[in-house]
Write a structure and sequence with these properties.
α1 crosses α4, α2 packs across α4 and α4 runs antiparallel to α5. A 4-stranded antiparallel sheet has the order 1-7-3-4, with no helix packed on it. A 3-stranded antiparallel sheet has the order 2-6-5, with no helix packed on it. The protein is built from 5 helices and 7 strands, in the order ααβββββββααα. By secondary structure, it is of the alpha+beta class.
């Protein structure tokens, strides 16, 4: 779903028009919904390949890094064999062994409040496709919460129902020592 489509659906849900609201709110609300889903619902998992040729090997974490994913850092040729590493301040990780590794992390989506109007027209949400349906409910809720309490409650219930379906809690992984 694109940003524009989510706004159209939100306006349908609220029986409103874009001109009824301050248009500067729209990207902020869409961004909040997308971030909330990425942090507390269905996570965006990305993989970074690292070739450590010295010990210790320091790497800069990507700008979209949120936190380490379940898989963590594993050897490239054996994904069940974890690697010795630790995170340090200032957005860096240190690997305590040599080799080629895959580092899995939860990522944050692009901050759409910084995009131009032209970029927003075609922007497609970066979270999992099945979670896009929740975004119009959140936008609609935020737009009408002070004007139509009953409709706002319906939209908030819809948002919460979707989030309960998308719940992707962080689980513990046990590995052999």
């Amino acid at each position: 779903m694109t940003y524009k489509e989510s706004l159209d659906i939100a306006f349908l849900k609220t029986d409103s028009d874009a001109s009824d609201f301050d248009s500067k709110l729209f990207p902020v609300l869409a961004n909040e919904a997308q971030l909330y889903i990425a942090k507390h619902g269905t996570h965006i998992v990305r993989k970074l390949e690292i070739e450590a040729d010295s010990v210790p090997y320091k790497i800069k974490l990507p700008d979209d890094f949120y936190r380490v994913a379940l898989q963590g850092m594993v050897h490239k040729d054996d994904e069940f064999m974890g690697a010795d590493y630790h995170l340090i301040e200032d957005g860096y990780a240190v690997i305590d062994e040599k080799g080629v590794f895959d580092f899995y992390y939860y990522a944050l989506p692009t901050d759409i409040t910084k995009l131009s109007d032209e970029e927003l027209e075609t922007y497609e949400y970066e979270i999992a496709g099945d979670t896009h349906v929740a975004i119009p409910a959140y936008i609609g809720y935020q737009l009408v919460k002070s004007d139509d309490v009953q409709l706002a409650q319906v939209l908030m219930d819809e948002w919460n129902r979707y989030l309960s379906l998308f719940d992707d809690p962080v689980k513990t992984i046990r590995r052999r020592i």
